[in-house]
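Lecture 7 notes: from sequence to structure.
We start with the chain below.
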Amino acid sequence: MTWYALQHKPAQGDRAVLHLQNQDVACFFPKIEVEKIKASKRTKKLEPLFPGYLFVNLEQTDPMWAKLRSTRGITRIVGFANKPAAIDDAVIDHIKASMDKVAEQGGIKSGQPIELDDGPFKGISAIFQAYDGEERAIVLITFMQKQQQVRVPVSAIRG
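Predicted structure tokens for the same chain:
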């Protein structure tokens, strides 16, 4: 069996996957957890890794191909010259492995040692405390034999 990409209607990826699974089609709809700030509050939300697309695993001779376009939530089959574009298994395996690695890491955790690699504190070791808005973080640095809380740009942190 080979992997193929399908384009789904806006905000209907989950619906398309549900209907494809009801028809016994193997699907892969990769999602990642993303932190967003809404009304001054940091929230986590699952979002598609490839917005607008999902993957199915089918044989070229499978009669299911005729039903794909009429499946609820599906817009079209991604292809070239009126033929579905096959995706190598290694690409899908790499995406799955990368997603597992990202999930294991889970971002920077409070109390984790980091190093600052930009700004006035460049090269200083610190301890991550918390995020302070979308683009800043609170870290602890040792300065004059005392730990001080400092707000730094998130881009200056190297885990």
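Points to note: Helices lie at 13-22, 65-68, 89-105. DSSP finds three helices and 14 strands in the chain.
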